[in-house]
Amino acid sequence: MPFKKDFLWGGAVSANQCEGAWNVDGKGISCADICTGGTHTQPKRITPVLEEGTFYPSHEAIDFYHHYKEDIALLAEMGFKVFRFSVNWTRIFPTGEEEEPNERGLEFYDKVIDQCLKYHIEPLITLSHYEVPLALTQKYNGWASREMIALFKKYCQVLFERYKGKVKYWLTFNEINSATGPFGGFLSQGILNPGTKDFMHPVDIPQLRFQGLHHQFVASAEVVRMAHEIDPEYKVGCMQLFATMYPLTCNPDDVVACQKFNRVKNWFCSDVQVRGEYPAYMKRYFKEHHICVKMEEGDTQILKEGCVDFYTFSYYMTGCISAKLDQRQAEGNLIGGLANPYLKASDWGWQIDPKGLHYSLNEIYDRYQIPVMVVENGLGAFDKIEEDGTIQDDYRIDYLRHHIIQMKEAVEDGGDLMGYTPWGCIDLVSASAGEMAKRYGFIYVEKYDDGTGDLSRRKKKSFDWYKKVIESNGEIL
Fold it and tell me: Which helix (H) or strand (E) is 312 found in, with range?
């Protein structure tokens, strides 16, 4: 049996995509709350001032805030061992700068965590999952400013002290390396440059993004050290968007171009968070892109002393890299790259490559040799309710089955794999497009792109399939 006896099977969500209750019980406005709805053909917009009559998906989302008992009971019915979710920073500190935390926000997470523990489900908590307080964007331009470090530490300290003995696993920044590209500047860092309106095509200043990454690296390292001091049992991980790329051809120019991409997009952030120092290859990148990262005295020591305990990542697709710039891009592929002629794609143009997960797991473990966890993976698809009320999502089962098979291969190759939490275990709002139509869950939520729907829950065919996968520890697929 490839997987460990204590393998952590479960699923993952984020606060801004599922909780709703955007202004309830003292919660402040986050950057996600000013993103409008969208579709896979019409990008969502950013509106620095909330517009009357505009639909903002995060404001209600799937209303997990009021359905958490029902939802966690369904996860427990599937046999979840772990549930990855995030805390919304603005529930705890509405503007990020209050002296004292919002007790009503903490009480909500008390209840969520206790509900998980009731069913023997380990909480895996992401501290920052695309939920920067809007007030900190407006005052400091988010993580472009070093003031964010102390504010983030204060927020994390409250959670670490509150949940000592209840929570073991934490992640600092979700998909931190998304900020190596323009798409992540606002999404991940709360950096909003003048003139930006279209979420997918922001006005971009790379200097700010990479300075912001340095501030996040220091904050992450400080938080890791703090967690270990507060509770030696705490395990704190990094979280990367693993943008697996292949050379388009065996032309050496393509191979070198692919290596350059992988170094910056896939390895840079985790090299800092796992190894505790900036990799040498970034010196040339910074020079060629006119980026000068300002560091303060002591930063290098902080990075060295705050290395993460384990490595986690999202994996959805792969792409190809060519040295030629006139090649066709893979449609809908947010990580960039060219279409791979050997792969099929999802309804959103994301190329499906289970063997790429095997390859990626091997590359990650060979590089770092610390425990690894796949904390996002899944198929966004149009799900249809049949006349008898069932949802026959065999395509999702097929997708997940083949990815789990490739995880087994990586374990057989010697990798230390901790667990697996498919993304959007219950339907939620898409982060990239702001739509409900792109569904990932084992549980269907009656909510639609125009904001209508009664929020009722129903099991898809994949629900019972995944329950058997967990019961058999991955043997029955």
Answer: strand 310-314
The domain segmentation of the chain, as residue ranges, is: 8-471
The 10 Å CB-count burial string (b at 16+, else e) for 28-66 is: bbbbbbbbbbbebeebbbbeeeeeeeeebbbbbbbbbbe
CB 239 within 8 A of CB 146: no
The predicted model scores a pTM of: 0.97
Report the alpha-carbon distance of residue 18 to residue 129 in Å, rounded. 12
| Token representation of residue 337 | 């790259």
Q: What mean pLDDT do residues 103-120 have?
A: 98
- Residues with catalytic function: 175, 376
Q: Which two tokens stand for residue 134?
A: 């809007």
Query: Strand pairing of 122-128 and 82-86?
Result: parallel
The pLDDT tens digits for 113-167 are 999 999 999 999 999 999 999 999 999 999 999 999 999 999 999 999 999 999 9
Which letter does DSSP use for residue 35 in this model? Answer: B
Q: And the tokens for 250?
A: 């065996």
CA distance 417 to 82: 14
**Contact (Cβ atoms closer than 8 angstroms) between residue 56 and residue 50:** yes
* CB neighbourhood size of 398 (10 A): 14
How many of the other CB atoms lie within 10 Å of CB of 439? Answer: 25
Residue 145 makes CB contacts below 8 A (sequence gap 6+) with 215
Residue partners of 151: CB distance under 8 A and separation at least 6: 93, 96, 97, 136
For residue 175, how many C-alpha atoms fall within 13 Å in the half-sphere facing its CB? 26
Which CATH topology does 8-471 take? TIM Barrel (3.20.20)
